[in-house]
């Protein structure tokens, strides 16, 4: 409801319209205007060379950025444990280092569901695109809202984020589809 009031739309995980594709992300209310950020792709962020092999086994949620950085958006299993561990390691005094709730069915940031956006396919053309964003130094009191943790300790800013941007107006009832092989990088 808050999302609808603030942004004019709401997105949720739901069964995909694509047969056998599992769940996807659907606009459930309002309209996502063209150019709006409509989801975040959360996860543990791996720099090139970081050991992702074990966490990537059977994992459909590893997002490869154009520069060799990877975001592991799987909320369960080893991936989920690693995210919790890295976020716990980076906790600073009273300030959580990250929003850990994206791994649950009720993420505190309702936009942190981008890892469930399905790939375009015949009859289901893409209506969103991935955009990599390098966030400048985020003050500690605000990091609790970010669904990201570095795998590696003590990585200086910027923090990598991946968001999904609407390519056109997307109306209630429509599912979000991306092209898994197209990424835009902005610093
Ligand atoms: C990042 S996950 C997306 C969320 C996934 N649908 C789920 O329910 O967990 C990517 C996986 O979703 C499925 N998927 C995505 N797009 C698809 C499509 N167009 N057709 C069939 N399966 C798809 C594939 O199994 C793929 O490996």
Summary tags:
SETD9, Beta-clip-like, 15% helix, single chain, binds S-adenosylmethionine, four-stranded mixed beta sheet, 187 residues, alpha/beta, S-adenosylmethionine-dependent methyltransferase activity
Structural summary, described in words:
By secondary structure, the protein is of the alpha/beta class. The protein has a single domain (2-186), classed as Beta-clip-like (Beta Complex). It has four helices and 13 strands. It has a four-stranded mixed β-sheet, with no helix packed on it. It has a four-stranded mixed β-sheet with strand order 5-6-4-9, with helices on one face. Strand 5 (62-64) and strand 6 form a beta hairpin. The protein starts with a helix and ends with a strand. S-adenosylmethionine binds at residues 16, 18, 20-24, 60-61, 115-116, 118-119, 121.
CATH superfamily heading: SET domain
* DSSP E strands, number: 13
What is the top-level CATH class? Mainly Beta
CATH topology: Beta-clip-like
* Beta-strand percentage range: 25-35%
Strand order of the largest sheet: 3-10-8-13
Which ligands, by name, code or SMILES, are bound? S-adenosylmethionine
- Sheet having the most strands: 4 strands, mixed
Number of helices: 4
Order of helices and strands: HEEEEHEEHEEHEEEEE
User: Mean pLDDT, nearest integer?
Assistant: 95
What is the domain tally?
1
Q: What does the overall shape look like?
A: globular
- Measured as a percent range, the helix fraction is 10-25%
The gyration radius over C-alpha positions equals: 16 Å
